[in-house]
Design brief:
This protein is an alpha+beta fold. It has a single domain, classed as RNA polymerase II/Efflux pump adaptor protein, barrel-sandwich hybrid domain (OB fold (Dihydrolipoamide Acetyltransferase, E2P), Beta Barrel), CATH 2.40.50. Helices cover 23% and strands 28% of the residues. The protein has 5 helices and 11 strands; from the N terminus they run H-H-E-E-E-E-E-E-E-E-E-E-H-H-E-H. The strands form 3 sheets. It has a 6-stranded antiparallel β-sheet with strand order 1-2-3-11-10-7. Strands 4-8-9 form a 3-stranded antiparallel β-sheet, with no helix packed on it.
Length: 182
């Protein structure tokens, strides 16, 4: 195989995320325009919460000042401890449970929500040390958290989420409205 053929093959190979995860979206989280979240759902039920590529944090060359998993005085997502095969001890989250707060260098603050019901398995502590991961690799090393839905709810958790096509339609309509008002 010559170099050109090899490059073509590499360019067409889907990423691990595209191969093994289904992307779901939550647009305009809690009514806040463009605050879009992405949920990557694996066939084993695990869900990875990430920022959608349209989220304001990833736009306009913003930089991240801080990421805080301390949700309230009595609740820190960093204190989440799971153990055993059935992942006992993980904090139970509802659809709108805050996972973390991200403050950008321009002092705008964004709350990232779980978007689905389930048990919090882990938060990504790597983004605390290297916040740029969130911006450079939001779907992989820059993820926010991993959640395991209850087995009996694993089919229904996506009812309130959008498919990629539905999300693209929402984003397209959003940009049409913005271009009309400009």
């Amino acid at each position: 195989m010559d170099c050109v053929e090899q490059k073509d093959t590499e360019a067409k190979a889907p990423s691990v995320v595209d191969r093994y995860y289904t992307r779901w979206y939550r647009a305009d989280m809690k009514g806040k325009a463009c605050e879009d979240h992405c949920i990557l759902q694996h066939s084993n039920r695990l869900c990875v919460v990430t920022l959608a590529e349209t989220h304001p944090i990833l736009q306009n060359g913003r930089t991240i000042k801080s990421i805080n998993y301390q949700i309230s005085t009595g609740c820190s997502r960093l204190n989440n401890k799971v153990s055993g095969k059935s992942k006992r001890g993980g904090q139970f989250l509802t659809d709108f449970a805050p996972l973390c707060r991200i403050t950008c260098s321009d002092e705008t603050e964004y709350t990232i929500y779980s978007c689905i019901r389930g048990r919090l398995l882990e938060v990504n502590e790597n983004i605390l040390e290297t916040p740029n991961l969130l911006m450079e690799k939001p779907s992989t090393e820059g993820y926010i958290a991993v959640i395991l839905p209850k087995f009996e709810e694993s089919k229904s958790i996506t009812e309130n989420l959008l498919t990629r096509e539905e999300f693209e339609s929402v984003v397209s309509k959003r940009s049409d409205v913005q271009s009309q008002t400009s």
